[in-house]
Amino acid sequence: MPKTASVTPRPALATDLMTSLGELLRQWLPRQRWFAGKDRPVSELGLLSMTELFPGCLHLLVRTGHGGVPGPGGAPAGDCYQLLLGVRKNLSPRLGRALIGRAERGPLAGLTIYDALHDPRSAQLLLERLRHPGTAGPLRFEGDPSVPVPAGLPPRLLETEQSNSSLVYGDEFILKVFRRIQPGVNPDLEVPVALAGQGCRRVPAPVAWFRTTHPQGATLGVLQPYLRDASDGWALALQALASGDDFTVQAHELGRAMAEVHLALAAAFPGSGHDDNGSTAAAMTERLEAAAHSVPALRPFVPGLQSAFGALATCDSGPPAQRVHGDLHLGQVLRAGREWFVIDFEGEPSRPLAERCTAQSPVRDIAGMLRSFDYAARQRRPWRPEWARRCREAFCGGYAALAGWDPRKKHGLLRAYETDRAVYEVLYEARHRPDWLPVPMAAIERLAVRGD
């Protein structure tokens, strides 16, 4: 087996490390699914912190810059990313997909650099850190002492498309390693902990996590139970479409489950009050204008879409604002047996963390799920709009049965939030999956022209 390189985090090494890694990371980062700046060149790259987790594995927080080019909605041009880098003289062929490159200069000259999350040895040592709370430089490893985590669980890295990286350990636990880091407690830790305190069984409770204290406090990863026999809602919906089966019973049950989660969220984070529809409409309009600037195909529909937001300012205020999921769709729910579970409370990764933690209308989550039914229906040709319509009705019916209010009777709110979600989807697909752009654009045309 190739030997790992012991890299002691001496001050001189930390200072010079980017001499070895800078050019390699500039080439590698934009190719990663979780990198947010694919449409902007990485012109600046800086090291924020470096810790040797164990020999041959470096934990880095790096700041990327884009030469003053603003991010989405005029956001700051830089982002912070978490990297776990393996360092070896030679790389085993089985780790070929993890290769970043060979350092030519600096303290790591002559060594091979790779993404350590692909390496079973590194993944197992990371779990050991989580099993034994403690510190490593600015890193803090913590957990729930009432839930033991066995040693020696074999790891596997999930290869599905996502904005973070996930490791499954022995089909018992799953570790989400956040890639794009923002200061503060990540809602994917904060919310499940709070829901567990409410006795809500729809969300797996965290058993361990790790964070950093430098350069600012931030959540880096969360370990939760893994639902080994579960299937995500997206896969189940596509299976139903492929076989010509109806999905309304499952959609109705999913609506009830989501209402249960919303009720638990309202109890866990009380005192939110009503949303300010005027401010919400202004924020939606600002996001629309920024998206239209980036995606020319959106521009002809801007006047019609703005009408949806204008109506929001004068319509019924709807249910009280509260903590919500923030990025709800069929890929964020799992069905195990006859039960639905909700996962991934991180919210839309492109939005600032503070915004994702604020109280919002629960209609935002409902609109996200309704859009997801449409996404699923459009994966089959010929398109089956009636399948999506029936699922939407069933989901709202299930939600209304438990929540005490019916989303279908909040037409102005629902149209505005669906429109805002579709605008987000257009921007996302244009940046990450251009072949999918016609799916949200079809909704944009419907929402702008017909006002549905």
UniProtKB/TrEMBL annotation:
SUPFAM superfamilies: Protein kinase-like (PK-like). It catalyses: D-maltose + ATP = alpha-maltose 1-phosphate + ADP + H(+). One of its GO terms (biological process) is glycogen biosynthetic process. One of its GO terms (molecular function) is ATP binding. Transmembrane segments: none annotated. It is an enzyme of class 2 (transferase). InterPro entries: Kinase-like_dom_sf, Mak_N_cap. It comes from the Bacteria. Pfam families: Mak_N_cap (PF18085). Residues 28-119 form the Maltokinase N-terminal cap domain. Pathway: Glycan biosynthesis; glycogen biosynthesis. Its EC number is 2.7.1.175. Keywords: ATP-binding, Carbohydrate metabolism, Glycogen biosynthesis, Glycogen metabolism, Kinase, Nucleotide-binding, Transferase. Belongs to the aminoglycoside phosphotransferase family. Monomer. This is Maltokinase. The lineage of its organism: Bacteria, Bacillati, Actinomycetota, Actinomycetes, Kitasatosporales.
